[in-house]
Amino acid sequence: MTQKHNKTAIVTGASRGIGAEIARHLAADGIAVVVNYANSSTQAAAVVADIEARGGQAVAVQANLLQAEAADSLFDAAKAAFGRVDILVNNAGMMELAPIGQTSDVSFARHVALNLTAPFQLMRKAATQLVDGGRIINLSSSVVGLYQPGYAPYAATKAALEALTHILAKELGPRRITVNAVAPGPVETEFFLDGKSEELVDHIRSMNPFGRLGTPEDIARVVHFLASSDGGWISGQVIRTNGGII
Ligand code: NDP
């Protein structure tokens, strides 16, 4: 039986992959969830149906985070559906790999817009709209600490997101709002698998001390903990959630 405690979460990019699993985990704990998506309406509806079938509450909200009004519309939709916002999970993100010499302005700008500007606008909104004792969790990446060739725009935007995380944690601490980042290593979602050969995926898997890739559930459990009352004394941290690969 799902325990109801009247909390509400916005999870960006929750139609697929890690975000969908985060939405399911929060909902299983009785948290009403706004399942944001850009294009995958069928998959977002399936996540909502899954949550409702288990006794939880969720609503799918289309908002393309590349558009400036997305932050306002997501908070408006959350309040209209559930009355308040307690938790913001900035999960949606993108990655295109290329050496800096081969990177286009368009690709760089897209990384900045989705991985940095959109979470910034949502955090700014959350700074005034989140209830006292709320939670903000940003999805960074373990590649921030690796300085791997080909990852420059992605790693740079995630590093900047970590900087925002540390600063906002200090700004919102007086209201008992925690702000943290979860930084996964490779996780078996389309995001990671797309464009990689089976050999390369096997190689990356073998590099992990656990001999496997992360799963969306590995990451969702940590986000859930940070979102829970047990995570209330953790703030301004980056939790590298990767099986010890770095
Ligand atoms: P997926 O590609 O599997 O899912 C991405 C999600 O983001 C989808 O729900 C998608 O919605 C949504 N999205 C994409 N563009 C937009 C947009 N413009 N507006 C709103 N939503 C959008 O990604 P993952 O689940 O793998 O990754 C989630 C997060 O975890 C990202 O921030 C990523 O950087 C981070 N991460 C992932 C790792 C991995 O190996 N998978 C490793 C380290 C970090 P739609 O379906 O509608 O397009």
From TrEMBL:
It comes from the Bacteria. Keywords: NADP, Oxidoreductase. One of its GO terms (molecular function) is oxidoreductase activity, acting on CH-OH group of donors. InterPro entries: KR_dom, NAD(P)-bd_dom_sf, Sc_DH/Rdtase_CS, SDR_fam. Residues 7-185 form the Ketoreductase domain. Belongs to the short-chain dehydrogenases/reductases (SDR) family. This is SDR family oxidoreductase. The lineage of its organism: Bacteria, Pseudomonadati, Pseudomonadota, Alphaproteobacteria, Rhodospirillales.
